[in-house]
């Protein structure tokens, strides 16, 4: 269910907000669902699977071809690591939500320049810096752009979502499962 929600939200963002779900400047609304890892460890594989499904769909939608597999593998890894960090630090939600921010900010810009060149971007967005031979500049830009976008999603959308969910029966419903695993 979590995987389906993550994939659907990502594709919805792509359909209605263009490339904000992918690309050099990202605002992937579906990443707000990483807050589900505050409530259950089952969210971690669910979020990772949802990310993989969405990134596979992007290969078809954007025409990235096999370069898109970089996003399937490493984007999914970033989401999984971020969600795992969230789960491990669930007792301190504000800290826990840093996991997805840091994981995505560090991992995604490492492969993004290769994908961008492969689909026809030849300069760093909003600058005139050529991608060819500018990997350090592109990584720095991606670190900032992805990190800021992820922080906005996690703290402006995710944290209020987590607070709202914590006032429902969801934590109690998942509580028995959580206690058995610890």
Structural account:
The chain starts with a helix and ends with a helix. Residues 176-182 have low confidence and may be disordered. It contains 7 helices and no strands. By secondary structure, it is mainly α.
Low-confidence stretches: 176-182
**What is the terminal separation in angstroms?**
23 Å
Strand content range: under 5%
Give the oligomer, counting copies of the same chain as homo and different chains as hetero.
Answer: single chain
- Taking all residues together, what is the mean pLDDT? 86
- Count up the helices: 7
Structural class: mainly alpha
Q: What's the order of the H and E elements?
A: HHHHHHH
Specify the biggest β-sheet: none
Instruction: State Rg.
Output: 16 Å
Identify the overall geometry: globular
**Count of beta strands:** 0
Proportion of helical residues: 55-70%
Please outline what is shown here:
By secondary structure, the chain is mainly alpha-helical. It has helices at residues 2-17, 43-62, 68-88, 93-96, 98-118, 135-166, 170-181.
């Amino acid at each position: 269910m979590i995987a389906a929600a993550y994939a659907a939200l990502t594709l919805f963002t792509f359909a209605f907000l263009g490339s904000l779900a992918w690309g050099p400047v990202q605002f992937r609304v579906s990443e707000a669902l990483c807050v589900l890892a505050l409530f259950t460890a089952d969210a971690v594989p669910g979020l990772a699977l949802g990310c993989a499904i969405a990134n596979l769909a992007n290969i078809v939608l954007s025409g990235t071809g096999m370069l898109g597999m970089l996003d399937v593998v490493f984007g999914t890894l970033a989401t999984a690591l971020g969600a795992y960090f969230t789960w491990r630090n669930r007792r301190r939600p504000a800290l826990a939500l840093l996991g997805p921010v840091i994981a995505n900010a560090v991992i995604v810009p490492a492969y993004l320049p290769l994908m961008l060149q492969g689909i026809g971007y030849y300069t760093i967005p909003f600058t005139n810096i050529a991608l060819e031979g500018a990997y350090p500049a592109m990584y720095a830009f991606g670190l900032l752009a992805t990190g800021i976008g992820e922080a906005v999603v996690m703290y402006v959308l995710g944290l209020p979502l987590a607070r709202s969910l914590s006032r429902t029966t969801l934590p109690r419903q998942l509580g028995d499962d959580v206690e058995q695993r610890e």
